[in-house]
Write a structure and sequence with these properties.
Chain lengths: 586, 464
Amino acid sequence: MSSHVPGLWARTMSRKCLSPWLLVAGAVCLPLALWSSHAGSFARDAEDGAKIDLTRAKFYGAAACMRCHKQPSNDWPTDFVLLNEYTTWRTRDKHALAYAALEAPRGRRIGELLGIQVTEDGRCLNCHALNHPRRTGQDFNIRDGVSCDACHGPAEYWLKEHAFDYKDWRKKSPGQKEARGMFDVRDPVKRAELCASCHVGNAAEGKVVTHAMYAAGHPPLPGFQTAGFCNNLPPHWRGLKDVRYLQTAPPEVQKRYHFGDAAFEQTRLVRASEAVCLRTMARLLANRANFTALGPEKHAAGSWPPPWLWHQATNQPALRWPELGKDARDPSPKTLAGRWPEFALAQLDCYGCHHELKSPGWRQVRGYAGGSPGRPQFQPWPLALADLGIPHPAEAAGLKARQRLLVSAFAARPFGDPGRVVEAGTALEEWTRTLKPDAGRIDRPAARKILRRLCTLPEDYYPDYDSARQIAWAFLAVHSDLSGGKPADTKIEALLTELDNNLNLTLKAAVRGKAARERHALATAAFGRALSPKDFDRALADKAGFLEPLQRINDAELAGALKSLRRYDPRHFKRIMSGLADRLKD
Amino acid sequence: MHGLDRPPRFPGEASNLMRRFLACLLAAAAAALAWWGLGPRSPAAVRPREAEAPGRPLPGYVPTGAGSCAAAACHGGDGPPWVKGNEYTAWMNCDPHRRAYHVLFDERSTRIIKNLHDSRAAPVNPLCLACHATPPGSSRSPCPTLADGVSCEACHGPAGRWLALHYRPQWQALSPAEKVRLGMWPTKDMAARARVCVGCHVGAAGRDVNHDLLAAGHPRLHFEYSSYLAILPKHWNVWEEKARLPDLEARAWQVGQVVSGRAALDLLAHRAGTKNNPWPEFAEYNCFACHQDLREPGARRGPVRGRLGALPWDTWYFSDVFRRELATRADPDARELARGLADLRREMEKPLPDRQLVREQARQLAGRLNPWLHDLEGAPCQAAAALRERIRTLTGNGQKAAGVDWDQATQRYLAAAAFYQAMTDLNPADQDPGLKAVIQGMRQQLVFPKGYDSPRRGEPGLGK
């Protein structure tokens, strides 16, 4: 009897959630159900806790989380979590639509042009879904896209404990949780690393958007920043300082959740994100330009994401150079060197080439310090804040030297000299490892200093669109920490709104906000009546009712985003920032 | 006729010794010309290379400067530009080449030099002077002043050895080859004239406007002979010329395609074969394939010959009008040329084209253009009806061509405009306002939006 309980339970659970008494019944039978379905793995665990094989830990999928995290009830406390995380993710978060994007018209068209099955090809699935085909739990559904386990870790070895021993579970250290497979996403560095592996790219894990993919219609990857992006999800969690449980928790527990810096959580995210994105980009460049070291990637001790997450054959040629396609079997360094311009194109600054010509354009007015005109450079945005000495003024000289190396590697010849790119990229990556973005407390004077630096841009500094967004997102984050979310004076608010609309930064921006509202309405309509995983699956695959309208919304949003990019002029951006600087003086 | 070993006898030329000396000098000049790799039919080659500083002249290059042409009794008269004797005045007053050197002082040039991180200012920089001025001679011979820009001798040849001869009656008796040997270039010949232009306007070794220079701020070079010739303020009698060559406009277009193509291939061979040159050279590719803002919906151009995101190679000098023209020829060279161009294009559109292979292919193909040019010289005048038919093909009967990039659309328009002009020159009764409007409509679609140096979306017709 008990063996078929989980499936039945899942199908009826959402209805049960609506009735508290049924929920209690559910809560009683859940441990029984889980115990019975995973008796094998837990038995091994019970004999020897250290022997958990995380390389095989199963991803349970969103349906497993839906049971409790759909909507709050009186039976589970909400002093720590909100318990409506699933609903927020399902109806508002684009990650829930990552796989749908592949099935929607644009995804299909890209597949046709590239001659691949986008819904089956690892080159797409590695970012658009949880691509661990041999590690899926019973209710796992690939259509859920980038679902809970993707960021929180495969749930097999922690699902039970975190639900039914939640009081003990909360007190465990991040290390203890990670030993069972749960990620510490409250750690700003780890969170950023997790995001950056897709949003910047990771060649060892096969997460690379190639130039051919872009040419086939993949939207350009925008510059990434954890604080800005997390706020746009929108977050399905509380800001640290608003977690009631932590407000009264013992100091050692507070420390585990990084509660000490709660007041400057956003600022810390910015700082961590900056170091991590720089590191990820440098590693990506070095990895893709290295045609000799083809073996499995060496994981430094304590490296993150943990090697067990991607234990399966990392760093294979087919992952590192998705461009190779059929030629990926045993490519010679010479073959790879001949393809380098193609690899380089995927990593270069898109808008260095993709801009209409004006004379004099702002690039020519800006000049090509350290580089060479006419030789495309790597994407500049990961260095935007570092360029302003944020937040590592002490190490600025070390960074500048390595930055110059990388710039000259790309200026050496069109598309860059791969040998020198490996050298310079590795040096830059190593340098970012010396950074301790989460060390050192941030206080008001420190945050104010960062804020001032962000809006006092040097005269001869002409940030490109993505760099300007890095600066603007950082400004918004630090400003919100300092103001505690209270509105500033009307002049500042007006400038921030102008900045937001010009750079399409937050959910309040006209283009982004409209698309977010429309997507929310579409998802609510599509999933509102779904009760079981099967219902969701059906709704997600509905072409006329879901995928096509979704594509229309996404296309309109992309059109708006590209329009704001097209209209961008660094001189205008600098005027807004200097306006902010003027207002901040008083 | 006088042979090479027996130069013409002019008054004042006295002794046998002198004659022998002159003969030696001419032989040396001929040898020097041969040594530069281009025969006497490539006058454009007789110019200093980039590596050589201005002021270090090539042997045998003896210019005298525009001032030596400017006498009121010679070419500096004050009559209308098409009347003999007023050439210098016409050039001085109207010709843009006159200002070639002056632009080196403007803001754009300053910015270019700054962006190239070059320590030498534009007005003294050999990179710029190679095209923006007439190369000076040795310090002992009179120099054309830099300030004259691209002056008489840049196109007519260094006058040191013919200045004193060319106004004497005996000059008329000399064959064009003999004049070339003395250093005067046969600019009356369509192809020879085109060769002078392409030396700078397409580029050559030492006069290469590559992508580094473009990105620093230099305007793009996209030369088309017949249209450049048409807009050049003439200092000669064009009616007289058209009386000699009634289909001049169409002929210039054809000659221009071949001569420009040859120069483009020579330049490509030079770019590929010179180790210190950037490679791949982006200036070889279609500018607007990359240089367009990203948009949604995008152009969705699809793969370039099977490869997504590849750079399409020469859409300007070997556009579809060139290929169509080539297809009309039946000789084996033409077939080889068509095949060779396809091979070269395939190589050039690889992520990293093989330099040696490209150099070899480009060199071979350049040689295969010669018979074509030779045929064009002797070709009979074209018929107005045939030209009308070709315009029809080019204009697509007024239908807007789908999927044609700006380069190709512009080449089509320029060809159509040249043919129309030739058609009406041949037979003034052939004026066809409807057809003219269609051609003007083609032009409208090519205009860049205000403030831009590129068509919106990289496609013609979407600029408004």
